[in-house]
UniProtKB/TrEMBL annotation:
Cell compartment(s), UniProt: Cytoplasm
Gene behind the chain: buk
Entry keyword set: ATP-binding, Cytoplasm, Kinase, Nucleotide-binding, Transferase
EC top class named in words: transferase
PANTHER family: ACETATE KINASE, BUTYRATE KINASE 2-RELATED
Classification via Gene3D superfamilies: 3.30.420.40
GO molecular function, one term: butyrate kinase activity
InterPro entries the record matches: Aliphatic_acid_kin_short-chain, Aliphatic_acid_kinase_CS, ATPase_NBD, Butyrate_kin
Protein name: Probable butyrate kinase
Taxonomy, superkingdom: Bacteria
Family under the similarity heading: Belongs to the acetokinase family.
EC number: 2.7.2.7
Organism: Absicoccus intestinalis
Reactions it catalyzes: butanoate + ATP = butanoyl phosphate + ADP
Length: 368
C-alpha cells in the first residue's frame, strides 16, 4: 500500500497551525505565532499572506523540515460559499473566493487555501480543502423559517464533526455513510449536529446565535427579548454576543471554561448555574437532533476541548445515554482531518470534488 506525506495549514487569529503527516502519523507540528502588531498593519486578512508564509518558511528551515517530497497540501477552507461535505481541489475559483471572502466572513481561515496552493505550486502537487466551515447538507425541512424569504443556514465545526463521525464509524467496523450519529464539538463554540448516512442534515447555526450558550457565545434567545435588549445599543456590539462577548464572557467576563467549572466546584453559585445551564442546553439540543433522526441513533459523539472535563461528560451521559451510547473524543482532529481527507482522495477511497462557486441552496422553487 502506497504511503502519503501531507502538509496541513490552519490559520488562526494570531497564529497558524501547521503539521506534517506520513499517512496518519504526525511527523511534525507547530502553532506558529504571529506578531499581533504586525498583523494589524495589514488592511485585509489576505494582505497577510506573504508575512505568514515567510514566518512558516523560517520555522521549517529552523527545524530542517523539507516539503519537497510532500504528496499534497491542505489548507483550512475559509471564505467559500456553501457546499456539500468532502475534499475539494484548490483551483482558481477557490482561490478567488477565499482571497476575498466570498461568503462575507473575514476570518484568517481564508488564508488556508491560498497558502496550501502556493506551497503545492512550488513542487507541482495537488492542494485541497476538506469539509470547509460552510458545509451545507441540510435536509429541506431544516431550511424553512416563519419569515418569508428568510431561510436557515448553519455554520458549524464541520471539519472536526465529520472526522469524529468517520473515526467512530471505523471503530464500529462500519462506514460513516452507513451510520446515524449526533455529533457535538464542545469548545469555545459549541456545535451540535445530526448526521444521517454520511450527510450532516441538521444542526445549529452557532455564528447566527442558535444552539446552546457557550463560553463566548450567547446561544439561542427569544426574539422579543433580544429586540428589547437591543434598544439603544450599537448593532455591532449586539452582533458580537453571537461569537465573542456572549455566554460566560457576558456574565463573568471570562471565557475560560475550566475556571468557570472550578468556581462552580468551589461553591460559586453564579458560576455553578452558568456551567450547569450550558450543559442543560447542550443536552436539550442533543435531544432535538435525536428527533431529527427519528430516534435511529447509532451513537452520540462528543469532541472539543471541554470534553476533557469529566463532569461535563458525566452529566451528558446521565441525561442522554438512553438515546444512544455516548462516546467522548476530547480535543479536536482538525489537522488530522485535513490530512485524512487528502489521503482518502489520493488513495482512491474518495472522489475529489470540484467547487462550483454557487450557493448550494437558493430558495424553494414554489416560493414566489
Amino acid at each position: 500500500m502506497k504511503s502519503y506525506k501531507i502538509f496541513t495549514i490552519n490559520p488562526g487569529s494570531t497564529s497558524t497551525k501547521i503539521a506534517l503527516f506520513q499517512d496518519d502519523k504526525e511527523l511534525f507540528s507547530k502553532n506558529v505565532s504571529h506578531d499581533a502588531n504586525k498583523l494589524a498593519e495589514y488592511k485585509t486578512i489576505s494582505d497577510q499572506f506573504e508575512y505568514r508564509k515567510e514566518t512558516i518558511d523560517t520555522l521549517l528551515e529552523e527545524n530542517n523540515i523539507s516539503l519537497n517530497d510532500v504528496d499534497a497540501f491542505v489548507g483550512r477552507g475559509g471564505g467559500l460559499l456553501s457546499m456539500d461535505g468532502g475534499t475539494y481541489e484548490i483551483d482558481d475559483l477557490v482561490l478567488d473566493h477565499a482571497s476575498r471572502g466570498a461568503n462575507g466572513v473575514q476570518h484568517p481561515a481564508i488564508l488556508g487555501p491560498q497558502l496550501a496552493y502556493e506551497y503545492a505550486k512550488e513542487i507541482n502537487v495537488p492542494s485541497f480543502v476538506v469539509n470547509p466551515p460552510d458545509v451545507d447538507e441540510l435536509q429541506d425541512l431544516a431550511r424553512m423559517t416563519g419569515i418569508k424569504g428568510v431561510y436557515r443556514t448553519i455554520h458549524l465545526h464541520a471539519l472536526n464533526l465529520k472526522e469524529t463521525a468517520i473515526r467512530h464509524a471505523e471503530s464500529m467496523s462500519r462506514k460513516y455513510e452507513e451510520c446515524n450519529f449526533i455529533v457535538c464539538h464542545i469548545g469555545g463554540g459549541i456545535s451540535i449536529s445530526a448526521h444521517r448516512q454520511g450527510k450532516m442534515i441538521d444542526g445549529f447555526d452557532i455564528v447566527g446565535g442558535e444552539g446552546p450558550m457557550a463560553p463566548t457565545r450567547c446561544g439561542e434567545i427569544g426574539v422579543a427579548e433580544l429586540l428589547k435588549y437591543c434598544e439603544g445599543k450599537d448593532l455591532k456590539e449586539v452582533r458580537q454576543l453571537c461569537t465573542k462577548s456572549g455566554g460566560f464572557v457576558s456574565h463573568l467576563g471570562i471565557s475560560d471554561a475550566l475556571e468557570v467549572s472550578n468556581r462552580a466546584k468551589n461553591g460559586d453559585a453564579y458560576a455553578e448555574m452558568l456551567w450547569n445551564t450550558m450543559i442543560y442546553q447542550i443536552e436539550k439540543c442533543i435531544g432535538s437532533m435525536a428527533t431529527v433522526l427519528h430516534g435511529n441513533v447509532d451513537g452520540i459523539l462528543l469532541g472539543g476541548g471541554m470534553v476533557y472535563n469529566e463532569d461535563l461528560v458525566s452529566q451528558i451521559k446521565d441525561t442522554c445515554q438512553w438515546i444512544a451510547p455516548v462516546s467522548a473524543y476530547p480535543g479536536e482532529f482538525e489537522m488530522e482531518a485535513m490530512a485524512a481527507g487528502a489521503i482518502r482522495v489520493l488513495s482512491g477511497k474518495e472522489t475529489v470534488k470540484k467547487y462550483t462557486g454557487q450557493r448550494k441552496f437558493k430558495g424553494f422553487a414554489f416560493v414566489k
